[in-house]
Amino acid sequence: MTAHAAILAPDSLTVVAPARGRPPVGLLVLPGLALLVLGLFLPLGQVLWMSLNPPEPGVIAPVAELTLANYARLMRSDFYLGIVVRTLWLSALTTLLTAVFGMVLGLSVWRARPSVRGMLLVMILAPLLVSIVARTYGWVVLLGDKGALNSVLMALGLTDEPLRIMYTQPAVLIGLVHVFLPFMVLSLLGALDRIDPSLTEAAATLGASRWHVFRHVILPLSVPGLASGTIIVFSLSMSSYVTPALMGGSRSGLMTTFIYQQFSVTMNWHFGATMVAVLLAATLALLLAVVGWSRWYTRQWSLAR
């Protein structure tokens, strides 16, 4: 009866909805937040704390005795700065090569027929089903002094002695590109799949060459995927240990192998923590730079349209 009255005379009646408390949706975040704090922020905080301790193995200093001596030692040494620069350069080169090869593979998958696209995706993603150690050992067998590559070159008479490929920076670069290439391809495919095919068709209809279509249509629209792939590959390359250790040896001269030596061999945890802090700062700096550049480029391209 009251329902009919409310419908017939809405101005004379006021329907009050029953008060209900909001569901505790925020409580669902607490387990993940607690895991993030315990598994990431607390260990990182401890590493940063150790880097501010005196450069004496086994000494944990109170707050009043914290020092920047470890950072000063790093900045004053050409040897340690060389390790940092070498790691940054190798990671940047790995990112650049994976971006080039990833764009080629991504465009091939994007333009392929559905049946061929599935096969290409399986071929690109299949290496992710194998551990990094197994994939890296495959390159060790291939590029070693008695590996398949040197055996073929010597059998063809192109060289009299095995080429020194393993335990060099080019070998580490080959391994890193191979390991992290699928991540770049996946990031680019996510951006390419969001491009409206009618845009490329319209550009081609108006007489644009394939290069101009790629330069002025595909590349600008794939910048978000390129930026995310750059962040992923560069971060993983900076922190990679298995591939540099197996293909570059203990003398690869990269930050990860040096950090391992400081923590496990010389037991100088404080200086190792300093290198970890520098590695983290360099990675975060690149992340912010790439995100800023991506937003700026996308904004400029939108204004130019």
From TrEMBL:
Gene3D superfamilies: MetI-like (1.10.3720.10)
The keyword Ligase appears for this protein: no
Annotated transmembrane regions: 27-49, 79-107, 119-140, 171-192, 213-237, 269-293
Membrane association type: Multi-pass membrane protein
Pfam families: BPD_transp_1 (PF00528)
Protein keywords: Cell membrane, Membrane, Transmembrane, Transmembrane helix, Transport
Entry similarity comment: Belongs to the binding-protein-dependent transport system permease family. CysTW subfamily.
Name used for this protein in its record: Putative spermidine/putrescine transport system permease protein
Gene source species: Pseudacidovorax intermedius
